[in-house]
Amino acid sequence: MKYRKLGRTGLEVSEVSFGTWAIGGDWGTSKDEDALKSLQLAIGEGVNFFDTADVYGGGHAEELLAKATKGRHDDVHIATKFCRAGNIHDADNYSEKAVRAYCEQSLKRLQREAIDLYQVHCAPFEVLKQGAVFEVLDKLKDEGKIRHYGVSVETVEEGLHCLSVPGVEALQIIFNLFRQQAVEQLLPLAAEKDAGILVRLPLASGLLTGKFSKSSQFEANDHRNFNANGEQFNVGETFAGLPFAKGVELAEQLSWIAEGRHSMARASMRWILDQPQVSCVIPGFKNTDQVLDNLGTLDVPSFSDDELKKLYHFYRQEVVPHVRGEI
């Protein structure tokens, strides 16, 4: 395993870490037994950082992490998120009373005395600009309830703003071959501010595995079904904002990246890790095979400068015109 600094937090995190949305819910059926085996395997392979949220399975993902990391609080770090269990447009949802309650509930489920990285979970931009929530997070940090805090954002503009907030030490962003906009301004500013960058949805909800066809179907409780067009939350969270059929077509045009890199999935995450400002990628998983496959990313070769230019031009010319929602 290789490790990178998580900005100025003082934490060093595994380059390939893992998100737990899939084992919590909203990605179709998952089994706790498989989830726990997968978490234990990942830790055994050197993974020391996991991302979760209080709404993943109504807190169930946090409970699974508590079981998997029992007795390892010092060397296995957990980031969790808050605010989406309530009305994200209501100012009271970000009051000290509300945020403190979210924090205490997560601490109880995680069975920890402090949260390593506590993140605002894709709050509306107006809430982030108003800034009161950061004052609450400063208090929780002073009290030792949280060690560091950051923001999970939807757009580059939101990320740029959050980097201007003194206490924000990390950003979680959507970043992949179908969502490259952060390269231009956001990643350089994060490096300047010494802020960590966590990359979620590195495979664009699975499109960048190259395993889907236009006729692929998803379970009713899978967000790739019920949010395919942004029906329930930000459209960018599903297929990077691309219409599914167009995403499959574009993925087919990128099949060349797998040459010499085992698979499209590993190649796609290698591209992300080739950006030096990135702290880690946090792909999801449901079973041990997926954990091992994702960890295989560390063994594939980087992209050449010519390949990087080719991929960026492909993004600007072929992908951007079809992305829905703000990037």
UniProtKB/TrEMBL annotation:
<dbReference type="Pfam" id="PF00248">
    <property type="entry name" value="Aldo_ket_red"/>
</dbReference>
<dbReference type="InterPro" id="IPR023210">
    <property type="entry name" value="NADP_OxRdtase_dom"/>
</dbReference>
<dbReference type="InterPro" id="IPR053135">
    <property type="entry name" value="AKR2_Oxidoreductase"/>
</dbReference>
<keyword id="KW-0560">Oxidoreductase</keyword>
<dbReference type="GO" id="GO:0016491">
    <property type="term" value="F:oxidoreductase activity"/>
</dbReference>
<dbReference type="InterPro" id="IPR036812">
    <property type="entry name" value="NAD(P)_OxRdtase_dom_sf"/>
</dbReference>
<dbReference type="InterPro" id="IPR020471">
    <property type="entry name" value="AKR"/>
</dbReference>
<protein>
    <submittedName>
        <fullName>Aldo/keto reductase</fullName>
        <ecNumber>1.1.1.-</ecNumber>
    </submittedName>
</protein>
<feature type="domain" description="NADP-dependent oxidoreductase">
    <location>
        <begin position="16"/>
        <end position="311"/>
    </location>
</feature>
